[in-house]
User: What shape does this take?
Amino acid sequence: MYRRFSFVEPKRSRWNVTSHPEWNPPVIWLCYSSILEAGFFHMNSCSRTKRRGFTLIELLVVIAIIAVLIALLLPAVQAAREAARRAQCTNNLKQVALAAMNYESANSCYPAGSYSNYNGGSPSTTCASGVVGCKSPENFSCFVRMLPFTEQQAMYNAVNFNLTSSNWQNLTIAGVQLNILTCPSEPNTAPSVIASSTPSASFNVYQIGSLPAGNWLQYFSSYAGNAGPFNFGYNTTYPIAEFTMQYGVIFNDSSVSIAQITDGTSNTFLFGEHSRFALQKAGNGYVNSDCAWNSGRYYDTLFGTFYPPNPPTAKGYSYYYPEAAAGNHPGGVNMAFADGSVRFIKNSINSWMISGTNKSSYGDFYPDGTTVASYIWSFGTAQLGVYQKLSTRAGGEVISADAY
Assistant: This one.
């Protein structure tokens, strides 16, 4: 760019030689024109133009506008990400449900929550043959039994079913993470390190023999099988009366076939979310144990509808809290039904009343009207909610399609 000077006639007067005999020379203004490199006039001014920047107020206004736009956009981005995670969680549960259905087709029953003692043998009241926990012999989880139906035949072949899930010989599978058992909304999916006393006062303790040298890990499951309204564990050393209170589809020593789900497969839970992170909000005393994917302990890979989904972490819910369905999706949990479908169940689903008037000597709340004697639970006068009705396989309840 360059500049050229020119003579310009002032606009405030006209100069005409013929009309003005007394000639007065015009006022000559020296102005300049900025000319572009192409040769065209860009501006014509008689004074120098000063460049002007932003004021502080203008800058603050711009920053405020940008902040508002970000504040409006961020929740939308987070919502889109959560929707994608929930969709992946739905797909995981569908794959698990399909695996269970294929298992039922091949074995004429759904996989049990676990089988007492080892390899289907008769349980004993004393430990024998290097088997741990004979008085509480919940064993391998339903997910271990379903490994061949989730394209994990090699892992299934590595399991020694002549021992329990607590024997160190079966440490290998404990340290394997399965993607279909991991919800993408879990904040922490890191495994726990197994020690000789891990996890302390829990079933899944590796204490038979010496723990081999090495860094042994325990991975967890975000999902669990539906044991029904009362999920308090069972094994064949218990009175048979305790077995009769198992109303779900997958529970300890179960052998439920699809023909026994008379409430309809589309009206019965099969699997549900059972987030380790969400459940530990009530306490982390079993941080290294709860939800261990290979353990059939009833609070590891089974859930019940004793409490509503994602129950509050108040004291009255503490003891039975680990058995509840819980997830990290806002507003509810994903549930897989026995027909293979997956639906989102809201936390606000109709559930039986828990007012706090019916509770244990330790202060744990029981559903109103339920009774328990010698570890045997009964509905008593309790009014089952829609949530409890969906967890029973043959209750004969009527459930409206718009109730959940």
